[in-house]
Structure formats: C-alpha cells, structure tokens
Model the fold of this input.
Amino acid sequence: MGTYALSVLSVVPTPITVRVPAKVNLHLSVGDARPDGYHELVTVFQALSMTDEVTVLVAEEPGIDVHGEGADSVPTGASNLAWKAVQLLAEHSGRDPEEPGVRLSINKGIPVAGGMAGGSADAAATLLALNQLWRLELGRDELSEFGAKLGSDVPFSLQGGTALGTGRGERLVPVLARHTFHWVIALDRRGLSTPAVYTELDRLREESRPNRVGEVEPLLEALASGDPRQLALLLGNDLQAAAVSLRPGLRRTLRAGVQAGALAGIVSGSGPTCAFLCTDADAAVRVAAELSGAGVCRTVRVAHGPVPGAKLVSEEPAHRPTPPQVHA
Ligand SMILES: C[C@](O)(CO)[C@H](O)COP(=O)(O)OP(=O)(O)OC[C@H]1O[C@@H](n2ccc(N)nc2=O)[C@H](O)[C@@H]1O
Ligand SMILES: Nc1ncnc2c1ncn2[C@@H]1O[C@H](COP(=O)(O)OP(=O)(O)OP(=O)(O)O)[C@@H](O)[C@H]1O
Done:
C-alpha cells in the first residue's frame, strides 16, 4: 500500500511558478481607430521590476486563487485573462477547456487596472507555465501567437526587456537598452478601463487636436545612449490626455513627481498609474519618499528596468520578496 501511494504521488507533476513583469510605455503613438476597433500603435515597452507570480498546479477542482495587492478586484472566474490562457492551451492540446484539471494561484505585485499590463502578465505567465506542466514544447514564437489572441500586451509580457511594438502592440522587435533606468511609480486609488481611455482619445480628437507624440527614432537613440536626462525629454504617451481627461487629478500627480525631483513623468499606458524617470537609484528613493508625502496618490514604489519577461522561477512555488514601497 505504502509503495502504491508513493508511485501515485510520483506521477503528479510538481507545481510550476512563473514570475512576470509589469510594463511601462516609454513612447506610445496612437493612430486612428481601425475597422476592427483597435488602434494602430507605435510604442516602446519597457519591462519593470514590479512582478506578479503565477503558479499552475494539477487539481481536479479547477479554479483561481488570487493574493496580494488589489486581489479583491481581480475576477476568479472565466473572465480572468489567465484563465482564458488555460482554456486556449487546453483546447490546443486536446483537453477539455471546461475541465482542464489545473488550478491557478496568482500573487499580484502589479497594480490592477493600472495601465501596467497586469492581466496580460498573468496570461503570459500562465502560457509559459502550462507549456512546461503539460510538456507542450511550444517555442517562444508560438506562445507569443497564442498570447496575441488573448490581448495586445501579452506578447510583450512574455518577451520583456525593451521592445518596439507595432500593429496593435503585438508585433515586437527587441530594442538595444544596455543601461538600467530608475523609476518611481505612483499608484492611483482606483483603476481606469483601457477601452474607455481609447474611446476618450477618439472623442478628444473629434473635438480638438490634442498634441501627438513625435517620431520614435530619437527615443531609441536616447535608450541606446543610456542617458536618463536625454530619455526624459523624449518620453511621450498619446493616451495621457485621455487618461487625464477622465481622471483630472493625474495632472497634480504628474506635477508633484517632477517637483519631488524626477526628471520627467508620464501616465503609464492607459493609466492611471504614473511613472517618473529619475537620474539613478538613490534619486528614485528620494523622489519616492517626497512624493509619498505629497498626498497625491495611494502608494509609491520604486522600480527599475529593463528586466526579463515571463520566466520560470522554480518547480516549487517561491516566496516573493515584497517590493520596496512607501505608503502615501
Ligand atoms: C494601453 C496599452 O496597454 C499600451 O501598451 C495597450 O494598448 C492595451 O493593451 P491590452 O490591455 O492588452 O488591450 P486588449 O485587451 O488587446 O484590448 C482592449 C481594448 O483596448 C482597445 N485597444 C487596445 C489596443 C490597441 N492597439 N487599440 C485599442 O483600441 C480596444 O478598445 C480593445 O478592445
Ligand atoms: N489576471 C488578472 N489580473 C488583473 N485583472 C484582471 C485579470 N484578469 C482579468 N482582469 C480584469 O481586467 C481589468 C484590467 O486589469 P489589468 O490589471 O490587466 O489592467 P491594465 O494593467 O490597465 O491593462 P493594460 O495595461 O494591459 O491595458 C481588471 O479590472 C480586471 O477586472
């Protein structure tokens, strides 16, 4: 009996944990709406040292557990983007998408609905983890194609580093960025809906002519030079006007970060998170401390980038160290 129990145990695959980063768009140029409702983008993504961890484990009772900051506002049913990743790969590999025989445990370190690709990160992590758990042997390119079906930001969450994104943001080319840049991240009290921010930009463009970010080339040169002062002058996001229009308080946050000593601040993606570029790691800590005292946001964190994309942590769920943060 003892031997039998041991042999059954030995065939249950070990849980797989993947760590996956948040992103910020250093440059986000939004074209007109396409017939399919998406907007044509030219964007530069950078992966930051704020991470989620997703563990997949074999279980008869399917489901999702979510822990960490903002866990209460993350759906645990079929609308969770990570669960959609499970269903996609289950279907691909001939499993029943309704009974895939796995559970997910998600540990959130990326703000929810913050414009930092939190849900996309979890979907990317799930694709990578299931590829390992189910021994699917899909290459990075194939995983990226599955990722693009789930959301425009998912391929970048898999790739990480710094990358130029075109199409709806899913077509990627890595960008040379040998240097580490230091950021202060200001989290807002409530999230913003990505489609609502794109719709607001369309509305603003019908009404007036909001400024558009320029060409991307100078920013790529600044990244290659590694000089944060040069990069700071070139950060730009077409969605910023729309995010600020929906959440006017962001104007105050952006001003406060620069007053606190940051080189420049931008709304991250569709917002409402704001990202402030600093000269170095020490400056970022000083800016974070001062910004947290300004009372303009919920929490302030420091982060650096670029960091790698979704990555297997180990075969055991690991304890994730708490990222440095300062409570406002
Ligand atoms: C704002 C960004 O985070 C910048 O990287 C992304 O463009 C958003 O990427 P995402 O959250 O993965 O977005 P998706 O899940 O693909 O799309 C959600 C919605 O955002 C809008 N959307 C998204 C991407 C894009 N290029 N044009 C769009 O108009 C569409 O209304 C779409 O229905
Ligand atoms: N795994 C997930 N983590 C967080 N939110 C999720 C997840 N799956 C689905 N959601 C839903 O998606 C919404 C947007 O969450 P998410 O954190 O992905 O936003 P975001 O970071 O602004 O996205 P992006 O930057 O890619 O536009 C949330 O309000 C939540 O209801």
